[in-house]
């Protein structure tokens, strides 16, 4: 049984808990929040008695095996490294870090301690994504992919009225690239690996945060365009184009329907389990890695590629975070 603690008490942690409650090999044991009141309120929903307002103190609790980190991106490194140094497995919400330097330190520490550190990237752990990988060969030689996630943020109206919440605060390593853009980048990383080169452009808002952007990734024999936005909606699906057909993917990041349109006029809808909340799948994979004691696991490379692409996009567009410095453990 994996005894889990959480850092963060927002809606995303509730979504994770929906999956946790369905699984027999994991249970919530403790909750951390900067506000003891919010922590107790969250813990009460799940019948948990242990509540901390000090994450350092929680890290020293011997009755905790693993921690789910869902704090602002700028705090992912500090929270994760603290838990790892005390021998806790860590499932860290996307994007896994502010930059590649932080990620390298976390991966090295996790391997040294023999614990699992994994990014919580729900789209690539879902049955829909596995179906994509299993049927990709049917498209023949892949030439182009368009991966997009454009969603008018529920916080954008507040932003336009002068209320800057975390999602639009670049001081917290946030913005469109690091928020929903990370889904597109990680999707690409698992699908095709590391691109040979990228070109990118961003749309900036009044406080300097990026509200939308586009990335063109070149692989020599194929191209991919990543389109992401927190200030507009899109009615178009993602797609992967091959010489034998085109795969239509609805929706991102929650893959609900995948259809292959073949050049001969035939079509095929792929069959897979689909949920409105797919976070159970990443939790299952996290548990499996813990049970297999795989600190050096198959999901780390995609996170490394994701961070490298994000760093290069930020370099090209002049996006700088306070966290952009090599941290010492």
TrEMBL record:
GO terms for molecular function: nucleotide binding. Residues 138-246 form the GFO/IDH/MocA-like oxidoreductase domain. It comes from the Bacteria. InterPro entries: Gfo/Idh/MocA-like_OxRdtase_N (IPR000683), GFO_IDH_MocA-like_dom (IPR055170), NAD(P)-bd_dom_sf (IPR036291). Gene3D superfamilies: Dihydrodipicolinate Reductase, domain 2 (3.30.360.10), NAD(P)-binding Rossmann-like Domain (3.40.50.720). Transmembrane segments: none annotated. Residues 3-119 form the Gfo/Idh/MocA-like oxidoreductase N-terminal domain. This is Gfo/Idh/MocA family oxidoreductase. It comes from Candidatus Anaerostipes avistercoris.
